[in-house]
């Protein structure tokens, strides 16, 4: 994607994210209480920072696995066609599963991955997304837990990219364009 001049305005601070993850971890612990067969699955690549913080906050024994699905390419619009680029390493049949996503936007990615994981007969499957853009939804679905509901803005940081950049920001920021493509 060609570079387009932009600035990033902070939307959710690192501190606010950390505080919210503490709350979310308590809900997840209650839901999976007593389990010794929980696999936390991160949807690459956007969830890598969130899952790292989340599993360190969770007081549950967990295994961690990853799956990579692609719907955006390097653009800013969903292609609505979800491809699995990298599958899980482990089996989830009979296991408890927590699927971790960065953002639910149109809903196509989460819908597709949930469908695929359910076919493998996990004992329990729950979903969590750090961010939710409900006004953008095209498929009727909601993650079981949401970090923050946000308006229809393109965001970056805390693992989330714009054309592969800005994943390293410690906060969530919104992209504001300041000029034309150059
Ligand atoms: P969906 O299939 O339309 O729900 O798209 C979900 C995926 O699109 C997320 O996993 C993100 O990777 C990507 N995405 C959606 N909104 C944004 C955004 O504001 N910034 C960066 N990536 C986004
Ligand atoms: Mg993603």
Summarize the structure in words.
The protein has 182 residues and is an alpha/beta fold. The chain has one domain: Rossmann fold (3-Layer(aba) Sandwich), CATH 3.40.50. The protein has helices spanning 14-31, 48-57, 108-118, and strands at 6-12, 38-44, 62-70, 83-86, 96-104, 124-132, 145-149, 155-156, 172-177. The chain has a 6-stranded mixed beta sheet, sandwiched between helices. Strand 5 (96-104), helix 3 (108-118) and strand 6 form a beta-alpha-beta unit. Helix 1 crosses helix 2 (48-57). The longest helix has 18 residues, at 14-31. It is globular and about 50 Å long. The termini are close together. The mean pLDDT is 94. Magnesium ion is lined by residues 43, 46, 102.
Detail the topology: elements first, then pairings.
Blueprint (H helix, E strand, L loop, with lengths): L5 E7 L1 H18 L6 E7 L3 H10 L4 E9 L12 E4 L9 E9 L3 H11 L5 E9 L12 E5 L5 E2 L15 E6 L5
Parallel strand pairs: 2-3, 2-5, 5-6, 6-7
Antiparallel strand pairs: 1-9, 3-4, 8-9
Q: TL;DR of this structure?
A:
With 182 residues, this protein is an alpha/beta fold. It has one domain: Rossmann fold (3-Layer(aba) Sandwich).
